[in-house]
Amino acid sequence: MPRDDVPAAVAALDGALLGSKRLKARPADKRPAAAPDRSDRSSYAVNQRLAACATGLDVARECAAQTKGGAPLSGVNVATALQRIAKLEARRTKRDDRVDKAFHVLAKEAARQAQDGAPRELANILWALAKFKLTEAAAPEVFDALSQACAAKAPAFNAQDVSNTAWAWATAGVSTNQAGWDALATHAPSKIESFDQRALSLTAWAFATSGVAAPPLFEAIAQAAPARMARDEFDAQGYANTAWAFATAGYTSSSTGGVSPSSPLFDAIAEYAPPHMDEFKPQELSATAWACGKHGCSLRLYDSIAAAAPRRIAEFSPQGLANTAWGFATADVAAPELFASIAEAAPRTISQFNPQALATLAWSFAREKVDAPDLYAAISTTARHQIEQFAPRDHANVAWAYATAKHADPALFGAIASTAARQVEAFAPQDHANLCWAFATAGEPAPQLFAAVARSLEATRPTPSKLAAFKPQNLASLAWSFSKARVRAPGLFAEIAAAAMNNIDAFAARHLAKTAWAFSVAEGIEAPELFAAIAEAARNKVDAFEPRDFANVAHSFAKAGVAAPELFETMAAALTLEGKLATFTPRDVSNTCWAYATAGFEAPELFRAMAAAAAPRVAEFGGQALANSAWAFATAGVAAPALFDAIKGQVVEDAATFDAQALSNVAWALATAGVDDAREAFEAVAAASTGRLAEFKPQEISNLCWSFAKAHVTHGGLFRAVAAEAAPRVATFRPQHPVWKSTSRRWRRTPEI
Hints:
By secondary structure, this protein is mainly α. Among the domains are: 1-184; 623-753, no CATH class. The chain is 64% helix and 0% strand. The chain contains 38 helices and no strands. The chain is elongated, with a radius of gyration of 37 Å.
């Protein structure tokens, strides 16, 4: 047939097969479908000619010629034609419309004959449709008819039929055929021993891709695959697809019919995949790394990926780079050479990254604590260009990454704040918490963003509060962020308090501490009921407290002026246990001491234990922590001669590095405690203060003078300097109660969690 006649041939094919009638599947034959009759010479001859065709157009012409002559196309012929066109056209970058039309006509005929088709024939037809990139959305009637036929014939499917059908459905996006998926999942496990590695991995991949739950099937694959791996039957693609499928499907609990992170399957992958790592394509390396991060696996597999990936890193797609980094970061596996190679490669293709990949990459590098300024700069530039396409999670992850990495980027934070403020209604609880935390931590002002978040989360009648869906860590982080950013939001804090009290027993120790700190420093917020609930919950969790939790809980109650004697007693008893204070940082020690002194809670054993722990480490404290500790012991009236001796020596050595507040308060503490032989320390304070009195607040100047007078230390140079500094500022000085009373609650800066 001349090529000029192809359009007419296609039209003839269409008319011959379907005429003008709508597609309608034949009713199912109650008898078992017969296998294709290979003795039919006409059908066999047509197949031979179809197999010899060199192009898709040739296949269309051959089918048209057959039907034009009045001979029908058998189901085998239709299947062969579809397969041949799919294979030939897969090589082409541009497809001929005439081939498309012919393929669609043949697909409709295959659907019409579906109920008569043999299992292998149906599987091959579906494979061809998917290979040709025909989707369910483009041909719903075709896929419906074929899927119904497959569901009915699934018991007769062999391993290849199962894997090809599942692959085709997944590739074509078949989402409406639950009966078909269920049929495959039901019947495949009994035949799993006949599955080769390709069938095992493709089947798992297909079910995972389609999001179809099939625990018995996955369990069967998990049990069968390790033996195949041990016999070295798996190739790189098989390992990658299997790992990715199980991670995507989320089978993590063997008690529920799934696979645990330490399952024989992943153990087998970790054992047998590394020798094949050089055979892995970049996409397979990234998929395996992602699966390891999602599911969990041994360090051996991570090490193998980390060794193989840098050699191929230039071939990785943007998504592959992001997924690889994410897999290692999620598992908290250090891979400096791998991350260095990603940091070098990513900027070259950064403009091709989509928002999700940008966010994933930034998050991964921050999580791994990898310093990569050039990469962060490249991500920022691209992110700002794409910011309008960012999803809520992308905003939150990018901001979190830059805040965590301490990479200052006001332009990026400004772009995120502006765009995210318009999207807050779509934010998940974790996104709200992470985004606000990032801005608060980075110190980037974003009043409009915080206001939008507050409006979004505050309940409006009759709509209930969105905070009911927040986990304890989200509530704690949200409250902390608003307090840290010094944003007033009384309505939001009231709702956070209510939500927290409803679920206070679920709060971990650190979340209790964070919440208490936030409410203690939030301006104009009082929450006695919440503090009472925190006190009760904290008492029950004191055994799980980290040093920072003790310090911050105690400080928060003292700062808020909330009496919690039972809580303070419980914490004091826990802290005096042998070895408990060994892990406390200087800041933890000073904050805890300050809290007990400020609260007026007498705990002499605790103070003695604190003194014993702190004295040998005074050189580590720094000016502020040293002054805080000294003030606390002086205020509590606890004698600690060894500690104060160490403090005196450190003041002499380091006073020049102290700020004004620390100088004033350490002098006050030495004087109040009546420390003997402290003249040298006072001289050091005077020397450090004399030339810097402009930095001192009136209260600090007053305390300094009182301290020298109380300690009977005369220093003419200091007092002359004070007179000169105070005279022009005397109007800013206020009448005071005795200094020891007025300073007990006002002098100290608020510590931070």
